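Worked example 2:
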Amino acid sequence: MIRVVIPYHLQNLAGVSREVTVQVEAPVTLARVLDTLEAQYPVLRGTIRDHVTKERRAFIRFFTCGEDWSHESVEMPLPAEVTSGAEPLRIVGAIAGG
């Protein structure tokens, strides 16, 4: 099971707690986790990434194992710590402004 921590506003939208789990077939990639998350919680479709292009929304970031994965290929396998459930994949709403 993959642990996914989602931002507060998306928790409210999906009606879930801070952390959810999804079952993803190997190889576990960011794209597969997001596909599974959106299938399990359809209300999240289009909130994390664009409906058509599947590109990450501008103010959404992905972190795992203390590293920013926002600009990594979505087809790159996630670290073993994530696939084992030891570390969560964190989806974070970025803040902009001055």
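The domain at 2-93 is CATH 3.10.20.30 (Ubiquitin-like (UB roll)). Residues 3 and 78 are 12 Å apart (CA to CA).
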